[in-house]
Amino acid sequence: QPLPRLLNGLGIPFVGERTGAILADTFGSVDAIAKADLDTLQAAEEVGPKVAHSIRRFFDEPRNLELIERLRAAGLQFEHTKRKTAGTLAGKTFVITGSLPTWSREEAKEQIEAAGGKVSGSVSKKTSYLLAGEDAGSKLDKARELGIPVLDEAALRELIAG
């Protein structure tokens, strides 16, 4: 399993799939996260004091360090190639809704992230684009209400291509 999934699976309070991915992208390895102090942890995007304290408490617990070593010995992935922060979509935040013609939502997310963009779960003023497929619901309404540009899969492909 890739590092973001491992971090999610460790059961660290407040560290789910998204925070695991952010930590993996920011630090690049379990060891770097384990050694990071509170200020360094909080420097990661979306990691505040509550999450940083939770991470620090987890890695300060001897039984958790033993678990980490058992997982390392079992061959789990402890390193992560940091996500590209440059690319055609750098600095852009996307929300995905509805069914896309050829990509699954996960594939669309991977394409966006590979081009330097971020994917969020909810529409807000900070959303750059809504990627909408068939049966798009309330997220589409909210994007229109906020004046956020709406793309289909073909338009996203063009945007990624530059």
Backbone structural class: alpha/beta
Give helix % range.
40-55%
Distance between the termini: 32 Å
Query: Main sheet, how many strands, which sense, barrel?
Result: 4 strands, parallel
**What Rg is obtained from the alpha carbons, in whole angstroms?**
18 Å
Q: Please, how many helices? A: 9
| SSE topology string | HHHHHHEHEEHEH
Mean pLDDT: 91
Q: Spans with pLDDT under 50 lasting ≥5 residues?
A: none
Percent of residues in β-strands: 5-15%
| Strand neighbour order, sheet with most strands | 2-1-3-4
> Which descriptor suits the 3D outline?
elongated
Oligomer: single chain
Extended strand count: 4
Give a short summary of the structure:
By secondary structure, the protein is of the alpha/beta class. The chain contains nine helices and four strands, in the order ααααααβαββαβα.
